[in-house]
Each structure stands twice: as structure tokens, then as C-alpha cells.
Design a protein that fits this description.
Blueprint: H1 2-35, E1 40-46, E2 56-60, E3 63-70, H2 71-78, E4 86-87, E5 96-102, H3 109-124, E6 127-142, E7 150-151, E8 166-170, H4 173-184, E9 188-190, E10 198-204, H5 216-224, E11 226-242
Parallel strand pairs: 4-11, 6-9
Antiparallel strand pairs: 1-5, 2-3, 3-5, 6-11, 7-10, 8-10
Length: about 250
């Protein structure tokens, strides 16, 4: 009996130690995040009506550049999500901004995302939290172990476009997943294990259209060497609690 009581007391002591250690790490994590700041950052509204026209977003080598980019897209890229997984006010898709932020070239892409999150919190007073939702999803996988994606800048013939076929081009896999999600009507989760800059060109026939051309699933398989697989699973989403439309001064 005494041995049993001793074991229980020992477990309780370990539990309290674990809780204390977790809480003691919180200030250190917060301090580390505060240290992740850009050397210089400019955030300005882009006055293009309705965010029409060309937009651009890049984050690499210690710099973030956005031109005429909807706030929804900037937030989704900062949290490594597609637009359809960011839940917030509808105006975020119709208000665009220009961002020029610079840090050391040695900053990792992961830290660059954390720095952009901190910048959004500072300038837009963004308050958000992550949640998990059960949804019907599509998973993007390698079809036969090797993709047909070409490096960005590579010269190669584009797919043939017939009457009624839609052609689009993107550079990064998150952008591809986002576009595929809009076409298929469900979130697309990238599980290819690929990372980098690619010249992704896809030609497909929209759902319900008649004409000569592959559907989206066949196009992804035959033209990109990837596969869309339907599943039911947990999807991480970002819920926006509050965000300002006008950023604070530079």
C-alpha cells in the first residue's frame, strides 16, 4: 500500500514538473518571436479598384514582396495555407496591399513566415487562431513516384489548348492547390513532398463543359505527373477574430 501511494505521489510530482516546464517556456517563445522582426517594412494600401489586375507575392531570401495582393492571400501565405482555409470578413478578398519587407538573407523561409505574421499583427492588428475541421478534401500526391513539374524558367512546350479548354500557370504548389480547390470545390492538401519554384502549366476542360480536352483530374495526372485523391479528413483552418482594413503607419 505504501509503495502504491509513493508511486502515485511520484506521478503527481512529474505532472507538476511538466506543467511548470511548459509554462516556463511560454515567455521564452514569446521573446523569440519578438526578436523575429524585419529590418525595414513598408505596408501600403493599393488603390486598384476591386483588386483587379495582376498581383504578385514573393517570400524568400529574407524578403517579402507583395504587389496588389489581396489581404486574404497575404494572410494565407503568412500561415502557409490556401485562401479557402482562412475564415474571416469578406472584404479581405477585395482590399489589396503592397508590402516591401527586408531582413537578413540568412533568415529561413519558416522564420520569414513568422516575421510576416508578426508584421500583420503589428500593422493590421490581426488576431487569429487555428482550428481543425472535418471536411471532404482532395490530397495531391505524386502519381508514379516522379512528377513532371519543370523548374521555373525552363523552356518547354505548353499543353495544347482546344476550344473550351482553360489554361492557367502558377509558380508554387500552394498556388496550384488553391486553384485546384476552386475548380473541384474542396480543399486540396499538398502531400507531394515537393518544394521549390516550378513552371506549372495546366490545361483542362471545366466541369460540365463539352469539348475536346481532359478534365481536371486527368490533366493533373497526365500533364503534371500528380494525382488527386478524394478523402475525408481533418483540415487546419485559420479563423480571423479581428483585423483592420487600414494598416498603421510605416
Amino acid at each position: 500500500m505504501h509503495a502504491t501511494i509513493a508511486r502515485r505521489i511520484g506521478r503527481l510530482c512529474l505532472l507538476f514538473l511538466a506543467i511548470g516546464a511548459a509554462h516556463s517556456n511560454l515567455p521564452a517563445q514569446t521573446a523569440a518571436r519578438r526578436e523575429l522582426q524585419f529590418d525595414a517594412a513598408s505596408v501600403r494600401p493599393n488603390r486598384t479598384a476591386g483588386c483587379r489586375g495582376r498581383w504578385d507575392f514573393r517570400a524568400s531570401h529574407g524578403s517579402v514582396t507583395a504587389v496588389n495582393a489581396p489581404l486574404l492571400r497575404i494572410i494565407s501565405r503568412a500561415y502557409n495555407m490556401t485562401d479557402d482555409r482562412v475564415l474571416g470578413p469578406g472584404w479581405m478578398e477585395a482590399e489589396c496591399y503592397d508590402i516591401a519587407a527586408k531582413a537578413s538573407d540568412s533568415v529561413t523561409d519558416h522564420d520569414l513566415q513568422l516575421m510576416l505574421q508578426a508584421l500583420l499583427e503589428e500593422r493590421f492588428h490581426l488576431v487569429a487562431h487555428r482550428e481543425s475541421e472535418e471536411r471532404s478534401i482532395s490530397v495531391l500526391l505524386l502519381d508514379k513516384g516522379v512528377s513532371k513539374l519543370r523548374p521555373y524558367g525552363a523552356k518547354a512546350p505548353d499543353p495544347e489548348v482546344s476550344n473550351g479548354t482553360v489554361l492557367f500557370m502558377v509558380r508554387h504548389l500552394p498556388d496550384l492547390c488553391e486553384r485546384l480547390g476552386k475548380v473541384t470545390g474542396r480543399p486540396v492538401v499538398d502531400k507531394t513532398g515537393l518544394d521549390g519554384d516550378y513552371r506549372i502549366v495546366l490545361a483542362y476542360l471545366p466541369l460540365g463543359s463539352t469539348g475536346d480536352g481532359p478534365d481536371i483530374v486527368s490533366a493533373v495526372r497526365d500533364q503534371l505527373g500528380l494525382r488527386l485523391e478524394s478523402q475525408r479528413g481533418a483540415v487546419e483552418v485559420l479563423k480571423i477574430e479581428s483585423v483592420n482594413k487600414v494598416p498603421s503607419g510605416n
